[in-house]
Amino acid sequence: MASQYKWETIKEFEDIRFEYCEGVGKITINRPRYRNAFTPQTVQEMIEAMDHCRYDENIGVVILTGEGDKAFCSGGDQNVKGVGGYVGKDGVPRLNVLDLQKKIRSLPKPVVAMVNGFAIGGGHVLHVVCDLSIASENAIFGQTGPKVGSFDGGFGSSYLARHVGQKKAREIWFLCKQYSAQEACEMGMVNKVVPFEELENETMEWCKIMLERSPLALRMVKAGLNAELDGQAGIQELAGNATLLYYFTEEAQEGKKAFLEKRKPDFSKYPKFP
Ligand code: S0N
């Protein structure tokens, strides 16, 4: 896909490309030889890039995608799957993709899955946890767990069911069938389907619109939508955002000032809204 955007490398990695353009951070899984399957190292690199996106004030929206026109991501690399998880270069088995899922979910900025081919297994779960999914017409979606000796009973099941409903989520997991981009869109787990050549342009158009919106409003609404499903962890995030906003008020400043000035705080002048 020829890009009309001038992507600048933020940091060099082995398994991913991490780039920036016009307020957007783009993370591309760069293992096309394995249909962009992830190893513990790939995941670790994505975690580092997501963390960068969190702290970089120039980045307002993040795109997650895969290299080439064959796959977004085909899940865990079966070549390094050992007993107890995916074995990294250090010989330790891990399932660190769960940490990546949590990073995507709690990043206080929208994350868009730009699905350019197969989104399968743990790769399917990655698009599920992204805030929005834009797919090319050649994209194919599905879970393989019960066929290949794995499953994701966390976000990969419960959050998927929120998108497509319980019956359909069970079908996706129990039968391990593959679905076209159009079917995925009709099910409610993809926002838009476009020809492959238009995928990046369309995704960037969506990103540009979000970049024009209030970042705090986007942050709060993402936290609110997550909170309903994420129990105490979701409430913690939403409440943390409320605290952030409270810190901006004079009323909160008065509490701190009074402590430092060794006097009683005077909150009497602050409004008690109905
Ligand atoms: C993606 C598929 C459908 C593509 O088929 P296609 O186009 O016919 O290509 P192939 O010839 O099959 O593949 C080309 C080459 O790429 C290699 N390859 C493909 N996928 C993988 C992979 N996942 N790991 C390693 N190699 C892969 C092929 O082997 C082939 O190589 P050569 O040329 O040497 O033969 C098709 O490839 C496919 O079905 N792939 C496997 C999909 C799969 O089952 N993935 C693993 C699913 N499991 C997980 O992701 C585990 C993690 C997980 O589920 C989980 C568990 C708990 C909590 C969270 C998670 C989570 O991940 O979220």
Describe the model.
This protein has 274 residues and is an alpha/beta fold. It is built from 10 helices and 14 strands. The strands form 3 sheets. Strands 1-2-3-4-9-11-14 form a 7-stranded mixed beta sheet, sandwiched between helices. It starts with 7 loop residues before the first strand and ends in a 14-residue tail after the last helix. The relative contact order is 0.11. Bound molecules: o-succinylbenzoyl-N-coenzyme A. O-succinylbenzoyl-N-coenzyme A binds next to helix 2, strand 10, helix 3 and helix 4.
Question: Could you tell me the mean pLDDT?
Answer: 97
Distance between the termini: 55 Å
The major β-sheet equals: 7 strands, mixed
Strand order of the largest sheet: 1-2-3-4-9-11-14
Helix content: 40-55%
Q: Mind telling me the C-alpha Rg?
A: 21 Å
Q: What structural category do the secondary elements indicate?
A: alpha/beta
Which runs of at least 5 residues are low in confidence (pLDDT < 50)?
none
Helix-strand sequence:
EEEHEEEEEHEEHEEHHHEHEHHH
**In total, how many beta strands?**
14
**Beta-strand percentage range:** 15-25%
Number of helical segments with 4 or more residues: 10
Bound molecules: o-succinylbenzoyl-N-coenzyme A
* Tertiary shape: globular
Pathway: Quinol/quinone metabolism; menaquinone biosynthesis; Quinol/quinone metabolism; 1,4-dihydroxy-2-naphthoate biosynthesis; 1,4-dihydroxy-2-naphthoate from chorismate: step 6/7
Cofactor: hydrogencarbonate
Protein name: 1,4-dihydroxy-2-naphthoyl-CoA synthase
Keywords: Lyase, Menaquinone biosynthesis
